[in-house]
Structures are given as C-alpha cells and as structure tokens.
From TrEMBL:
InterPro entries: CALM/Myosin/TropC-like, EF-hand-dom_pair, EF_hand_dom. It comes from Ictalurus punctatus (Channel catfish). Keywords: Repeat. Residues 21-56, 57-92 form the EF-hand domain. GO terms for cellular component: myosin II complex. Pfam families: EF-hand_7. The keyword Protease does not apply. This is Calmodulin-like protein 4a isoform X2. SUPFAM superfamilies: EF-hand (SSF47473).
Amino acid sequence: MGELDFSTFLTIMHRQMQQEDPKTEILEALRMTDKQKKGYILASELRTKLTGLGEKLTDKEVDELFKEANVGRDGLVHYEEFTRMVTLPPVDY
C-alpha cells in the first residue's frame, strides 16, 4: 500500500459514515497511515490531523475521542482497538 495523504483519509472517513460497515473503512484508513505496518500510529500524529486539517476538531473533542476509545498512555493508537471502540453503539445511560 502507498502513503495516504490526509485529504484521502478524510474522504475515506466520510464514505464510511455513509456505508453499512464503518469499521472496515476506518480500519483501512488507519492502516494506510501506518507506514511501517506496526499496528499502531502515534496519538500525536492523529491529533495533529484531526485538529489541523479538514473539518477540524478541537483539542477537547480529540481528548474526549481518545478517552472514549481508550487510547493508551503510551501515546499509541492501536488502530484495530481504536476502530472497535469508536464504532461501538452509543451507550444509553
């Protein structure tokens, strides 16, 4: 797989919102950003992309997303776990 620019990443993320299986699309987008194929990307890298490009999130929104997705203290986003967590049905309290 080649390198993924963020514009393409956003396009993939947008498409996943309109499809029946968002897990596959999110997972593929994250895999494409993992240039060394380690199974994770740096949380700081994902934060920079989410707050600086496309439809920007605030730092607070990213903090909440990372908290909900259990992004580890090691600063790594293990994309299979991240994808599973962000695609869980919302909890109704």
